[in-house]
Here is the input.
Amino acid sequence: MTVPMKRVIPRVLAILLLALLPLALPLGAQSPGAPLTAAQNYRIGRDLEANGRMDEADPYYNEAIRQCRDQAARGAANRDTYTVITWALQRQKKYGEVIEWGERGLRLFADEYRIIETMGEAYFYLDDYDSSLECMQRFTDAVPRGERTSVAYFFIAEIFRLRRQYLRADIAYTTALRLDPAVVLWWYRLASVRESAGDRQNAAEAYRRALRLDPNHRESAAGLARVEALINAEP
Here is the structure.
């Protein structure tokens, strides 16, 4: 008995659609009901924190940390384990623990530069500028155009600014802004070190760049007014 083609074609199409369905799902997509991974818990927490909801973010950070500790205790830890736990501890400002877990991770994965950059930030907030600078310079040398490279250069610049090494700070802020020119704070900081170094014309331009991004940035507006007054008073 011959099956009419108008019945065969829909069946073939249905089979093809079922075969192609997995390809339409994004990589790493979870099946419904599967528990969140440590990385997924961290990202949810980070998104909540970015929206000013830290109280809601903390349980996700805590769960990410618990999962990572469990993996380490079972001997099942990998690069992501140590990376995620340092990220989550960093968001909770537990900087000493960031260093502790970062060192443990680097003993196993010496080239895990995500950990090195996170440790650089933790050392900065612990006022250990020498160690912070060492981490950040190691990171920027190894990852010259990575996702966090601009941030690393910003911390390098902050260290030089705090040490009143204004020319070095200028270079580092400028490098950070070349990689990510849309950060108001960084333009303001660049302007401030140029002003401190007596480079008024370039300071004024950096203040203007900050104000183009945020016309309501009061510190930049005050800095620009101050520098322009000095420029106009010059003979």
Q: What stands out?
A: Residues 226 and 232 are 10 Å apart (CA to CA). Confidence is low (pLDDT under 50) at residues 1-6, 12-29. The two ends are 104 Å apart (CA to CA).
